[in-house]
Amino acid sequence: MDNAEQKIQHVARNRKARYEYEIVDRIEAGIELMGSEVKSIREGKINLSDAYAQVVNGQVILRNLHITPYKMASHEPLDPLRPRRLLLHKREIARLEIKTEQRGLSLIPLAIYFRGRLCKVELGLGIGRKKYDKRQAIAKAEADRRMKRALKIDR
């Protein structure tokens, strides 16, 4: 089965990220996890609202991703906020490093999902929005909702 045919099972989405940042580019990365963390993620015990990624020494590190320890784990629980390494090709890491340093973009996790049996993170390169940009985004979304509602009533 190739990547296009594998079933994608979404576990968590970072809705706050789309509000706080203007997403310019997206990239899919693998995530290095311990066995009990995978089981917690499958149960949906994950919070990525405060998470962010950094390029450090040629590696992309995901920080502030909270994975609740798995209750049935046979060994002592891992730190729920420990930094986790993301799995990317060297040239992808180099491209991300250039964009985050030169353009001032941020790496934000947008979603965590399983592609087949592998856990993946969708990273977004984003520009932070100012307060007035956020207000404009809310006003636009509200206007779109009103238009859809009006079109639904007319039918």
Keywords:
single chain; 155 residues; alpha+beta; Small Protein B, Chain: A; 7-stranded antiparallel beta sheet; two-stranded antiparallel sheet; 4 helices; 9 strands; 33% helix
Encode the helix/strand succession as letters.
EHEHEEEEEHEEH
Tell me how many strands there are: 9
What amount of the residues lies in strands? 35-45%
Mean pLDDT: 88
CATH superfamily: Small protein B
Name of the level-1 CATH class: Mainly Beta
Q: In DSSP terms, counting alpha (H) and pi (I) runs of 4 or more, how many helices?
A: 4
CATH topology: Small Protein B, Chain: A
Query: What is the end-to-end distance?
Result: 43 Å
Helix-and-strand structural type:
alpha+beta
What characterizes the major β-sheet?
7 strands, antiparallel
Low-confidence stretches: none
Using the 3D structure, state the CATH architecture: Beta Barrel
Number of domains: 1
Helicity, as a percent range? 25-40%
Query: Assembly state here?
Result: single chain
| Global Rg | 18 Å
Order of strands across the widest beta sheet?
Answer: 1-8-9-2-7-5-4
Shape: globular
Annotate the secondary structure layout.
Layout: E1 8-13, H1 15-20, E2 21-31, H2 35-42, E3 46-47, E4 52-56, E5 59-63, E6 66-67, E7 84-87, H3 90-102, E8 106-115, E9 118-128, H4 131-154
Brief characterization of the structure:
The chain is an alpha+beta fold and 155 residues long.
What does this structure look like?
This protein has a single domain, classed as Small Protein B, Chain: A (Beta Barrel), CATH 2.40.280. The chain is 33% helix and 36% strand. The chain contains 4 helices and 9 strands. The chain has helices at 15-20, 35-42, 90-102, 131-154; strands at residues 8-13, 21-31, 46-47, 52-56, 59-63, 66-67, 84-87, 106-115, 118-128. Strands 1-8-9-2-7-5-4 form a 7-stranded antiparallel beta sheet. A two-stranded antiparallel sheet has the order 3-6. The longest helix has 24 residues, at 131-154. It is globular and about 60 Å long.
